[in-house]
Batch of 3 targets.
Target 1
Amino acid sequence: MPPSLAATDIPCPPWRRLLALVYDLLIVLAIVMVVGLLCQLVTGGQLIRTGAAVVVPAWYQALQGAVVAAYFIGSWRRGGQTLGMRPWRIQVTRDDGGAPTLQQALIRVLVAAAPLVLLLLEPVIGLRATLWTLLAVWAGWFAVALFDPRRRALHDIAAGTEIRRLD
């Protein structure tokens, strides 16, 4: 991080962090596509089986999750920012303003991703209902920031981190 940029004590407004998340979703999409391409090449195009039901190997899902988690954890640990956070001039910090520890970054990513467990409901309630449920739960995760004085979302509270604006 350039020396001219320093985290302030000003909490990040929720709208700014959500816009940064939209940017990061584009990065995550690119990561998932590259990992998918590499896995298709390694398996000779036989990664996902279709037929009466689509079968996606559990190892592939775990690999995708690990690579995406590594992007977020590495970004937060390296400079406190993902690529999506940079244009919005926001940064993840510990409560005391320092860089998040590995444990904090891991807790933050796991709690933020926890609603993905709801995808297991898809065979029972259908894809559309599952996605709306997932969206509603994530909205609740971030709605906590509207009431927290430091504008922390649920995963920030769990990890002892917060998002601050940069000068």
Note: The chain has a mean pLDDT of 91.
Target 2
Amino acid sequence: MKMFAAGLVAALGMAGIALANGPAGQVYESTETESGHSYTSTFHADGRFTNDMGNEGHWTYEDGELCIIVGESSLCNPFEPSEVGESVTTDQWRADGVEITITRIE
């Protein structure tokens, strides 16, 4: 949890606020560029966030910004919804600066 919470994370239990047009109901696979380690993250339609590393939290999407909060850690970045199969490679979704490729899988 610590690695992901410090990395790919988005916002409080504000499930009814600004979820439209964000990643509601979508699933993404994140793969670390150097190590090849990957994990799957689910953005539930009710604003909950979970991943297969055991992290749970909340997310919000407002004015083009996605925020993920897991425990006391949060991370917010610009976000553009994508189609299944589309990917983006970035170092902005990990607080430790590790480059990851994020692919929408559902």
Note: Residues 3 and 40 are 14 Å apart (CA to CA).
Target 3
Amino acid sequence: MNVAQLLGDKGHDVISVLPHRTLAEAVRTLSEKRIGAVVVMGADGALVGILSERDIIRALGANGAAALEMPVSRVMTAKVVTCRPQTSMDELMEMMTSGRFRHVPIVEDGRIAGIVSIGDVVKHRVAEIEAESRAMRDYIAMA
């Protein structure tokens, strides 16, 4: 299975914020949408960063409550690791594990095609293992 198939099941919705918005606004978005990261998009729709819960915690730890008034651009991760829809699930899991991050934007033809979280990957892997288990039980029952 590859990322395109996962996005086909999960959907291509991407929640984004503009880099000039305050951290407080981004936090409200994360809370309202019940998500752990937002993609930061420029006015032209280009990917300029990603803002995760970890980025927010680091900013709060360094600056206290004043961090909430900072623009997202000062807190976000600007070097975003992305993948393509053709990326295999094994490659994606390796990227996320070795990079120690939980969200990966999917880029196709220079545009954001979706975002995948570690929760999406785990859900896929559990479903895969359950399907293999069912197939094995059915095979044994028929033998």
Note: The helical segments are 3-10, 23-33, 53-63, 72-75, 89-99, 118-142.
